[in-house]
């Protein structure tokens, strides 16, 4: 076993993926996270901060192990599902996987158009550009990056995520002098506390969710390390790094915002439906914060777009392959075909700018939670190549958290 002697060093390759997974998770939602997670007060947030790190790490590790458990190295998630659960289940889960991720891509196509448009009008003081043209240029630029090779995409994500982390961290520090004890005074009732935790867990799960990129990430580890045991070890190490990064930077930002504002102000921000940075900029009358708001949103949406594109493309191509049963597939042609499909659907939605998108996204919530939390845990019980992961406490933890998240999302829909 040479793989055990192999010292687990951080390589450029791992760091690039760690940053990419962080970027996939931190979408524009991070700007609304303090409002959604903080309205319940400080103490439920402390419990969430304790839970969300292990939740994020163990759940994504399970999904990565699931992808790596295939007898055929290089299989993506849609192929692994078919291999383990049969053709019919393969088609169904691939379909669900696609429909859980695709709406998020639509939201990002729409969101990047709105962000850039708002920046041009409000910060640069120029006239609003032609929406049809603006959305086409932005979406075409994002998709063309995805048609280059993996290294380019990882490199670009790195460039986007560094300023993102820097701005989030700088803002968190900047707010420290403004911290007040208003939130610490809020002592929720026990039932209120439990309800709040229950309803807010999905908010955190999806703010930290990088499952759409996990399949491509796991395949990439396989190509890099060849040895399956080594690939799995490095994948776990990288996922732990991503989860830690998310916990430190995102939760610090959330806490800093929550400690700066009072419960009443957070409720007001929710009512105004603006991001936390816009709200802070108005409160402190600080033009710099209002400049950083659109920047953070732009960096966050772009980096998150890449990770979600990987998942949506995989789902769509997997569906096409499963429906045609064609063994001789030109991958390059298929890549270009899916790119054209995404370009026109995303462009169409961005031009129309519908308000229904959030609703579709929330319908995808339970599916993502099932694929991320429940499916890998079920596979550990049922699939021979995954049985070596049985009997770990983390499996119970992930299953329970997954069920809590799913029940809360379903409850939220009704």
From TrEMBL:
Keyword Aminoacyl-tRNA synthetase: no
GO molecular function: amino acid transmembrane transporter activity; symporter activity
Record has Membrane as a keyword: yes
InterPro entries: Amino_acid_transport_2 (IPR018227), Hydroxy_aa_transpt (IPR004694)
Record keywords: Amino-acid transport, Cell inner membrane, Cell membrane, Membrane, Symport, Transmembrane, Transmembrane helix, Transport
Catalytic reaction annotation: L-serine(in) + H(+)(in) = L-serine(out) + H(+)(out)
Transmembrane spans: 15-35, 41-59, 92-111, 131-147, 159-177, 189-208, 246-268, 288-312, 333-350, 356-380, 392-413
GO cellular component entries: plasma membrane
Annotated compartments: Cell inner membrane
Pfam families: Trp_Tyr_perm (PF03222)
Mode of membrane association: Multi-pass membrane protein
Protein name: Serine transporter
Protein's organism: Lonepinella koalarum
């Amino acid at each position: 076993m040479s793989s055990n002697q192999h010292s687990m060093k951080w390589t450029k390759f791992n760091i690039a993926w760690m940053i990419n997974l962080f970027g996939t998770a931190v979408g524009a939602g991070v700007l609304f996270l303090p409002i959604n997670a903080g309205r319940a007060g400080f103490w439920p947030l402390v419990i969430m901060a304790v839970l969300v790190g292990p939740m994020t790490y163990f759940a994504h590790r399970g999904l990565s192990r699931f992808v790596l458990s295939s007898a055929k190295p290089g299989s993506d998630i849609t192929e692994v599902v078919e291999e383990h659960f049969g053709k019919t289940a393969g088609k169904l889960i691939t379909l669900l996987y696609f429909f859980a991720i695709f709406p998020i891509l639509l939201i990002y196509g729409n969101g990047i158009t709105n962000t850039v448009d708002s920046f041009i009008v409000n910060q640069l003081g120029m006239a609003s550009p032609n929406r049809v043209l603006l959305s086409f240029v932005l979406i075409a630029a994002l998709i063309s990056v995805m048609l280059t090779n993996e290294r380019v995409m990882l490199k670009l994500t790195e460039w986007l995520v560094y300023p993102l982390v820097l701005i989030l961290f700088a803002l968190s520090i900047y707010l420290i002098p403004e911290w007040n004890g208003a939130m610490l005074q809020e002592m929720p009732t026990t039932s209120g506390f439990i309800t709040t935790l229950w309803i807010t867990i999905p908010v955190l799960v999806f703010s930290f969710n990088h499952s759409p990129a996990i399949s491509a990430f796991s395949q990439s580890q396989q190509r890099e390390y060849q040895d399956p045991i080594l690939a799995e070890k490095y994948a776990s190490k990288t996922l732990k790094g991503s989860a830690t990064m998310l916990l430190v930077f995102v939760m610090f930002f959330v806490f800093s915002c929550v400690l700066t504002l009072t419960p009443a102000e957070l409720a007001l921000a929710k009512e105004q439906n603006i991001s936390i940075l816009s709200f802070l900029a108005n409160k402190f009358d600080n033009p710099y914060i209002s400049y950083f708001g659109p920047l953070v949103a732009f960096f966050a949406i772009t980096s998150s777009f890449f990770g979600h594109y990987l998942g949506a493309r995989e789902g769509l191509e997997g569906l096409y392959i499963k429906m045609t049963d064609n063994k001789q597939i030109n991958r390059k042609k298929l890549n270009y075909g899916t790119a054209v499909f995404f370009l026109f659907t995303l462009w169409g939605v961005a031009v129309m700018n519908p308000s229904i998108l959030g609703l579709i996204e929330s319908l995808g919530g339970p599916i993502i939670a099932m694929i991320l939390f429940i499916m890998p845990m079920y596979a550990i019980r049922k699939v021979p190549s995954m049985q070596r992961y049985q009997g770990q406490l983390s499996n119970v933890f992930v299953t329970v958290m997954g069920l809590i998240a799913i029940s809360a999302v379903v409850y939220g829909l009704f």
